[in-house]
Amino acid sequence: MLNPVLKSDRARVDNDEALREIANLAEAIDLNVVHRATLFLAKTVPATLLGKGQVEECARLIEENKIVVAIVNYSLTPVQQRNLECEMKCKVIDRTGIILEIFGARARTREGKLQVELAALDYQKSRLVRSWTHLERQRGGFGFMGGPGESQLETDRRMITDRMVRLKQELEQVRRTRGLQREARQSKGLPTVALVGYTNAGKSTLFNRLTGADVLAKDMLFATLDPTMRGMKLPGGHEIILSDTVGFISDLPTHLVEAFRATLEEVQLADVILHVRDIAHSATKNQRDAVMDILADLGILASDDRLIEVQNKIDIFPPEERERACKYASRLSKEGGQAVLLESLRPEAHGGIASISALTGEGISRLLELIEKRIFFRQNAYDITVSLSDGAALSWLFAHGKILKRRDTKTSAHLKVALDAADYGRFQSKYGKHISN
Prior knowledge:
Elements: E1 2-6, H1 15-28, E2 37-41, H2 52-64, E3 69-72, H3 78-88, E4 91-94, H4 95-106, H5 110-125, H6 148-187, E5 192-197, H7 203-211, E6 228-233, E7 239-244, H8 254-259, H9 261-268, E8 272-278, H10 284-297, E9 307-312, H11 319-331, E10 332-335, E11 338-341, E12 353-355, H12 364-377, E13 380-387, H13 391-400, E14 402-408, E15 412-419, H14 421-431
Parallel strand pairs: 1-2, 3-4, 5-7, 5-8, 8-9, 9-12
Antiparallel strand pairs: 6-7, 10-11, 13-15, 14-15
């Protein structure tokens, strides 16, 4: 288990945490970690990443401990990976490779398997030469005909390229199907709330807590890979769709994000986004930054008013620290060394913070209040008068909007209702009964 770190990055990188994370990734695919080390590099070597002396020392350790797989916590080039395998005389897997191994083991749905296969093929395409080192790769004797190795490589590359084209077409169909499903939900006026966060932050546990579902929730990295959606009711009685998504991780390769773009569209188009953080984790701030970087790549910035920060796992804290975390969530938000009272932030600048325990249920009511506030903040308030005898119109308003105020006379109900503009238009066309001040 090797964790290469440039000396210029030494001050800002938590080396112990990086080693723990890559070890957890290895254990997630049932590898037994027998040795781990951080290697400081003055600069990277194009051929092997590591310096000559470091490679020799690693080769000695691998031979002495009879290690069969060396994991490098870095995105290696195909040449670096091949050269390290030759020098160390064992299989070498980089950070991208081990994440793909986990994804392949976790995918259950057809969509998840398609996404993982596309990402894996994209990764393998440039590494095919490693499988054919025993064949000639130079020009053939006639000067224009490739040797047997080149012929096989070109055949394999063509097969992979063709398969990738088919996979992209199938995922495009998945994207269109998701779009139709999304339109159907929107036609019913059901807002969508998406869960995002670092892997193992507790998203699936929170999803199960809120919806009563039984999504796999285990203390392991990438326990959830396939997206799941369930309906639920907020305290005010309004229905929403809650969506659980794949966990993020630092240094997630771009092509992995691209492969899961069909799934991540649910996050981009959600009405509310819950950023679930493991607040008890030693690297919680680094994990937060990693998630925000990926969200920024999707066009979702920290200032997005849909974002609610969910500080999870406060049950791990002792009582005094738990109380302090809750006070922090309700009163104080610190960024860049500046303290800003949440109450003084404009609602459109921040969705708020909730400290919770998805395991015990502590703080869930506060979170639900924030979700409801975020959803209805995007709505307009309309003054509507409906006959008390028109039960269907009243039921429709209660189902699709939030009743802010109600005053009844003998014959009519005078309501102030928070509604989306589209829902207000639907009410007008469906019932044709409204009074606006």
